[in-house]
Amino acid sequence: MLTYGTYDLLHYGHIRLLRRASKLGDYLVVALSTDEFNAGKGKASFYSYGVRKEMLESIRYVDLVIPEERWDQKIDDVKKYDIDIVVMGGDWRGDPRFEVLKDYCEVVYLDRTDGISSTDVKNELKH
Q: Domain Cytidyltransferase-like, which positions (predicted)?
């Protein structure tokens, strides 16, 4: 399996998503958005790529963390890592950047955990 994300301010919603994704197969690859890729999207992470990668690598559900450096790398990732299933949060359902992968593998959308998001955490920390 393969999933993509920024995984900034790692929280229980992330952990639950990774746990559910890992149960769909026997090896979970996480493509982690680099700081440069996030900047191109107009986003900035609280933690650097290196710290976010270290945190993800410490989670027992995650087998490998690779850099996500551009939108159009997904097909190459699926081929390179022999991926059968790409797993994403339900808010990505219907996005053509993931729908195109259906020609190469199964794409599964998992509902996010209610009541938690990195955006929510950042907003709460501002108060």
A: 2-123
| Residue 123 confidence (pLDDT) above 90 | no
Tokens at residue 110, please?
Answer: 């998992």
What is the token pair recorded at 88?
């994403």
Is the pLDDT higher at 29 or at 11? 29
Architecture of domain 2-126: 3-Layer(aba) Sandwich (3.40)
Q: Which residues are catalytic?
A: 41, 43
DSSP 111: P
Contact 2, 92 (CB under 8 A): no
Mean pLDDT of the chain: 94
Looking only at Cα atoms, what is the longest distance across the chain?
45
